From TrEMBL:
Protein keywords: Membrane, Transmembrane, Transmembrane helix
Protein name: Uncharacterized protein
Organism: Halorubrum ruber
Membrane spanning residue stretches: 6-24, 31-56, 68-85, 97-120, 126-149, 170-192, 204-227
InterPro entries for the chain: YjdF-like
Length: 242
C-alpha cells in the first residue's frame, strides 16, 4: 500500500514538473513560481522528519499520505494557474476544499493530541469548533496574502503571483474552506494523529505558535489593507477636488 502511495507522490511531482516546464515555455511567471513552490512543499514533511532525527534523535512518524496530499493539492493548484482558475468556475472551489481539508486534518490531529496532553476538558463539539474556526482563520490569512500580492503586482506593474478576484470570490473561498474542514470532521479523519503523538509537547507548542502567527499575521495584513484603502480613497478624493 505504501508503495502505491509513494508512486502517487512521484506521479504528482512529475505532473508538477511538466506544468513548470509548460509555464516556462509560455513565459507565465506566476505559474512558474506556483509550480516551483508546490514542488518544493512536497518535501517539507521529509525535511522536518530528517531535522527531527538529526537534532533530537526522533522520527515524526511520517507516512506517505501527507506528502501525497500536499502533492495532489499542489498539482491541482499549479495546473489551475495555466488557465483553469479563469476558465473553469469550480476549479478554485476544488483547490480550496482540498487545501482546507489538509489544514483541517492536521489541525484535527494536533488538537486531539493537545487536549489529551494538557488534560483540558474539551468535548467533541469544542474540538470540532476549534478545527473549523482555525481552518477559517487560515483561509482569511491566505485571502489577505492574495489581496496584498495583487496590490503589489499592480504597484510595480508585475503579474501577481496569486490572483484575487474580489469580495464575492473571497466569501466563496472561505465557504469552501469550511466545507473542507467539515468533511474531515464528519469522516473523523485521524490520519495524522500518530505523527502528532510522537512528541505531544512539541505538538502543543506548534499549535500555540501557529495560532499566534495566524492571529498576528492576519491583524497586521488587515491593518496594511485598511491603510492602503484609506490612502487610495484620499488620493481619489483629492483628484476629484482638483
Amino acid at each position: 500500500m505504501e508503495e502505491l502511495l509513494f508512486l502517487g507522490v512521484f506521479a504528482c511531482l512529475a505532473g508538477i514538473a511538466v506544468i513548470f516546464h509548460t509555464a516556462v515555455r509560455q513565459r507565465n511567471a506566476p505559474a512558474v513560481i506556483n509550480a516551483g513552490v508546490s514542488f518544493l512543499l512536497v518535501f517539507i514533511p521529509v525535511l522536518v522528519d530528517a531535522l527531527a532525527n538529526w537534532f533530537y534523535g526522533i522520527r515524526v512518524g511520517l507516512t506517505p499520505e501527507l506528502p501525497l496530499w500536499i502533492a495532489v493539492t499542489g498539482l491541482f493548484h499549479s495546473y489551475g494557474m495555466l488557465g483553469p482558475y479563469d476558465e473553469i468556475s469550480w476549479w478554485d472551489h476544488l483547490t480550496h476544499t482540498l487545501s482546507a481539508a489538509l489544514v483541517a486534518a492536521l489541525l484535527y490531529a494536533v488538537v486531539i493530541v493537545a487536549v489529551e496532553y494538557t488534560l483540558v476538558p474539551a468535548g467533541t463539539s469544542l474540538i470540532w469548533a476549534t478545527v473549523v474556526l482555525v481552518t477559517l482563520l487560515s483561509g482569511v490569512f491566505w485571502e489577505l496574502i492574495e489581496l496584498l500580492a495583487r496590490d503589489f503586482g499592480r504597484k510595480f506593474d508585475l503579474p501577481p503571483v496569486l490572483d484575487h478576484y474580489g469580495r464575492q470570490d473571497t466569501i466563496l473561498d472561505l465557504f469552501f474552506d469550511v466545507v473542507g474542514a467539515v468533511l474531515v470532521l464528519v469522516a473523523d479523519l485521524r490520519l495524522f494523529v500518530p505523527m502528532a503523538e510522537v512528541s505531544p509537547q512539541t505538538t502543543v507548542a506548534a499549535l500555540v505558535v501557529v495560532l499566534g502567527g495566524l492571529v498576528v499575521g492576519s491583524l497586521v495584513m488587515s491593518l496594511i489593507v485598511v491603510v492602503k484603502q484609506a490612502d487610495s480613497k484620499t488620493q481619489t478624493d483629492s483628484g476629484r477636488s482638483d
